[in-house]
Specification:
This protein has 5 helices and no strands. It is mainly α. α1 packs antiparallel against α2, α2 packs antiparallel against α3 and α3 runs antiparallel to α4. The N and C termini lie far apart (about 35 Å).
């Protein structure tokens, strides 16, 4: 039931904000973590990749207009996301996000 609610939120966000919006990334992230907690890593793992990609694009896009403080907060958020993904039992290559 919970996954259905997350999927609905994801679809609404996708249709209203688009697939490159940070809110869409947040919805993807929520669904991925739900699958992780439901012991369904095969369904959750692929969702983390676009989340990190979108976050990186947002950082790159906003780098010229955000204050240093905002940039540091955003970078800390991405670092936290990467750290939490790397500490999971899922083993997948993350270098694609670090290039």
């Amino acid at each position: 039931m919970r996954s259905q609610h997350h999927k609905q939120a994801l679809e609404i966000t996708k249709s209203t904000q688009g697939e490159q919006h940070p809110d869409y990334a947040a919805s993807l992230n929520n669904l991925a973590w739900l699958y992780r907690y439901q012991a369904k890593p095969g369904r959750g793992e692929p969702l983390f990749r676009p989340v990190l990609s979108i976050q990186r694009q947002v950082l790159d896009r906003n780098a010229g207009i955000e204050s240093n403080r905002q940039q540091m907060a955003n970078q800390a958020n991405v670092k936290h996301c990467l750290s939490s993904r790397l500490s999971t039992p899922w083993h997948w290559e993350t270098t694609v996000f670090l290039q």
